[in-house]
Amino acid sequence: MVIAHATRPTAAPPRTPAGAPRGPRRRWAAGPLGTQVFLLLLAAAFLAPVVWALVSAFKPATQIVSDPLGFDPSTFTVENFRRMFADVPIGQGFLNTAVVLVAKGSLTLFCAPLAAYAFAKYTFPGRDLLFGTVLITLMLPTIVLIIPLLLEMKELGWVNTYQALILPGAVDAFAIFWMRQVIAAVPDELLDAARVDGCTEFGIFWRIVLPVIRPALAGLAVLTVMNIYNDFVWPVVAASSSRMATLQVVLSTLAQNITGNRIGADYATVTGELLAAASIALVPLLIVFIALQKHFINGILAGSVKG
User: Fold this and answer.
1) 110-239+288-303 adopts what CATH topology?
2) 112 contacts 172 by C-beta, under 8 angstroms
3) Where does the ABC transmembrane type-1 domain lie (predicted)?
4) CA angle 105, 182, 292 (to 5 degrees)
5) Of 287, 305, 281, 213, which is closest to residue 54 (Cα–Cα)?
6) Nearest-CA neighbor of 282 among 51, 86, 58?
7) What would the pLDDT profile of 14-72 be if each residue is shown by its tens digit?
């Protein structure tokens, strides 16, 4: 015997009364294509002035003024560069900057991790007070320290010398803070195991800590190179002679050097030589950043850990 089961009618979904508030609507979210388009537009906005300066440096001086946005490769010339090298001691500026960059950068990359290692892994009286004092110096504007530092350089007889350009600020407070955050994440068990094996304290830093923090150290190296290369305020005060002028100081006095060495130099000539000098100064920094951008990004991520 077959027993028929009665099926219940399916209940219809309740209707929303007229005028009643509806549930939250799904918001539109930009997909990968929208994000890529936005980033491309942002990159184009940042790169447009750089590309214009590089291209305009090869244009005739009169064309830069008369048609600044024009692009005619058939008219490209190196006359702006030839005149600029004849009027401006940019080679001496590059040499001074290279000396300061190598010496000061080496001091920063060697001393800052060592100080950060002491703050992160050692316990000694006054450690927190001393580290807090280091952090307070980050809040002081550079202009406040210029006069005391200049008086100190004068007493030491270091004005217009490489010592004045290299030593002040060689051990940067930000570098110590960043390296401390990275080193604090290194497990203490690794350090204890090295001590049990008879490794010295400096050997622990050199063989255990340094390989672990290498990505962050590479990122710090990129930031250090950029800061030293672009530094202007302290070099223009500590090195007032043209013999010790760094690249940024030479670029700041470029127009005066051009008009002083060439009588009757017009606005177009000065503009062409300025763009030529700016392009030459820009290229090394772009090469360094492009070559080390992977290490820079990894270093930023490594320095974001919480210690």
Assistant:
1) MetI-like fold (1.10.3720)
2) yes
3) 94-292
4) 45
5) 281
6) 51
7) 555 555 555 555 554 556 788 888 999 998 998 898 889 889 999 998 888 888 888 88
Nearest Cα residue to 228 out of 120, 76, 99: 99
Q: CA torsion, points 272, 278, 281, 285, in degrees to nearest 10?
A: -140
* Rounded distance between C-alpha atoms, residue 23 and residue 38, angstroms: 31
| C-alpha distance from residue 257 to each of 50, 252, 263, 265 (Å) | 24, 10, 11, 11
Residues in the chain: 307
Token pair recorded at residue 2: 């077959």
Residues sharing a CB contact under 8 Å with residue 278, sequence separation 6 or more, in sequence order:
53, 57, 251
Determine the number of helices (DSSP H) and then strands (DSSP E) in the chain. Answer: 16, 0
pLDDT in tens, 2-16: 444 444 555 555 555
3-state DSSP percent of the chain in helix, strand and coil, to 5: 70, 0, 30
What type of residue is 125?
P
Q: What single string gives the DSSP state of each residue in 61-130?
A: HHHHHH-TT---GGG--SHHHHHHHHH--HHHHHHHHHHHHHHHHHHHHHHHHHHHHHHHH---TTHHHH
Q: Where exactly are the structural domains of the chain?
A: 43-82, 110-239+288-303
pTM listed for this prediction: 0.77
Apex 217 CA angle, 214 and 220, nearest 5:
155
Instruction: Please write the tens of the pLDDT for every residue from 104-121.
Output: 999 999 999 999 999 999
Query: In one letter, which amino acid is 197?
Result: D
Q: How far apart are CA 160 and CA 127, in angstroms?
A: 36
